[in-house]
Amino acid sequence: MNLEGKVALITGAGSGIGEGIARRFVEDGAKIVMVGRRKEKLEEVAATFPPGSAKVCQGDVSIPEDILRIVEETLEFGDGKIDVLVNNAGINVPGGVAEIALEDWKTIFDVNLNGPFLLMREVIPHMKAAGGGSIVNIASIGGLRCLSQRVGYCTTKAALIMMSKQAARDYGVDNIRVNAVCPGFVLTEMTEEHFGGLTEDAFIGAPMQRGAMPEEIAGICSYLASDDASYTTGSVITVDGGATVVDPFEIGIMGAARNK
Ligand code: NAD
Known about the structure:
By secondary structure, the chain is an alpha/beta fold. It has one domain: NAD(P)-binding Rossmann-like Domain (Rossmann fold), CATH 3.40.50. It contains eight helices and seven strands. It has helices at residues 16-27, 39-46, 64-77, 102-130, 151-171, 189-195, 215-225, 248-254, and strands spanning 7-11, 31-36, 54-58, 84-87, 133-138, 176-183, 236-239. It has a seven-stranded parallel β-sheet with strand order 3-2-1-4-5-6-7, with helices on both faces. α5 links the parallel β5 (133-138) and β6. α3 runs parallel beside α4 (102-130) and α4 runs parallel beside α5. Nicotinamide-adenine-dinucleotide (NAD) binds at residues 11-12, 14-18, 35-38, 60-62, 88-91, 111, 138, 140, 183, 185-186, 188-191. Keywords: Lipid metabolism, Oxidoreductase, Steroid metabolism.
């Protein structure tokens, strides 16, 4: 129970990786506030938790007024403190620079980057006053290297990684730790929508030759939120089954067969 006594705010907690993190945090003893746009989804998940361990807070991280209310409700639920913030809510939209609709470009910045920015901005003063805290930003390996026709996604995730490092730099002195987690391919609604119907062959060039389940991302988030990670800040941690260690030329030139 390494999160016993901690109050955590988790965005996008109604499905996928966020739901996995919510489940793990409750299991590990945290009290959590689950934020998302779909109330029913959040309530469905919260209903499976012990009474008093989770609060549902419907809200959109791209709306500044919602951010203020989310933080207020979390402080209320957490008896005046927020120990952990997990910025997990995110979207993906297709298109390269020449194809992405301008509206989509703005929306993805609002959700993937400005949402975490606004939440950190509101939460950090409370963490400072309480003597510290932990912020976990869910970025992506798309923030470390390019994905075909996903300029909005990769650009916002790269910026989220740098914002995490910058905040680690600025608030380490306040005992506020900020880390970025970069998942690889995780089986969720997002990947179903964008890459649905993948067969096993799609993973053949990846060292572990499979996608991850959401709960496989949750463990590292629980660790980063906990006091076990008391000296870990400014880190960018890949959880990608080794996908980023593969040289594309190895797959291209020698063929996937070499990986077997
Ligand atoms: P998902 O679509 O299952 O979950 C995202 C959640 O965020 C949903 O519950 C959605 O309703 C919520 N959300 C979206 N926009 C929101 C908004 N404006 N305000 C509040 N909530 C909002 O997808 P997922 O795969 O679980 O993604 C979670 C995070 O992990 C995202 O930031 C995503 O970029 C990142 N990620 C996912 C993968 C993957 O392979 N699935 C890989 C790397 C990173």
